[in-house]
Design goal:
Layout lengths: L1 H15 L26 H10 L3 H5 L5 H36 L2 H7 L7 H12 L1 H10 L10 H45 L9 E8 L8 E8 L3
Antiparallel strand pairs: 1-2
Protein name: DUF5683 domain-containing protein
Amino acid sequence: MPQEILLAQRAIADSVTPHTPLDPGVPAASPTEETNPKLHRSVGKAFLMNLAIPGAGHLYAGEKRGFVHLGLEGMAWAAYLYYHDRGKAKEKEFETYADGHWDYTRWIQSNPQYQNSPEDSLIIYFRDHNRQQYYEDIGKISTYWDGWDTQDNRNFYRGIRARSNNFLKNAHTAVAGAFVNRIVSAVDILRVMKNKSHAALGEQTKIRFNMRTKPFARDNAFGFVVTRGLD
C-alpha cells in the first residue's frame, strides 16, 4: 500500500531530524559579523597617564612610541641624579675650602673701617642665617677679599664653586627636559587618539591648548579645551 508506506517514511524522518525553533527576536549570526571588536580607549585617561608617566598613555592606547617617551623620561632623571650629586659634592668641597681659607677676624683686622658697618652686619647675618649667600659673597664681592689668606686660594675656591654651579645647572636642565617631555607626550596622545577611529572625536572636534610653562616657577599651568561644532 504506497500511501501507508509514504506516511511511515515521513514519521521516521520527523523522529530522526529534530526541529529547532527560531526566536524571531534574535537575529541570525552573520558570517561576516565582527566577534572581537576593538576595545575603547579613553582619551582623558591616556592624557592623564602621560602627564603622570610620559609614554604610559601611548602604551595604553596601543602606540609603541610610548617607549620613546619612557626612555627620554628615564634618561632625563638619570641625568638629573648624576649632575645633582656631582654639584652637591662640589658644593660641600668649596664650603669646606672656604672655611679653611677665609676668616672673618682676618678680614675685619685688614679693614677696620668696616667694623659695625652695613657690610659687616650683612656678612655676619649671612654667615649665621644664609650660608649660600655667605659663600657667594666672600668669593665674589671685593669688599671681603682681604679675608682670604692668599689670592690664589680665593681663585681656586671660585673655580670649585663654578664647577658646582655648572653641575647643578645641568641638573635643572635635565628636569626641564623631563617637564617638556611630559607636556609633549600628553599633547601627542590627544592628537594620536583624535585620529584613531575608535576615539570618535569627529571632524568637527577642535582642541585648544593653553600652556604657561616655567619649569622652576610656582605658577606653571597647562590646560586644554575640547569643542565640537554642531552638524
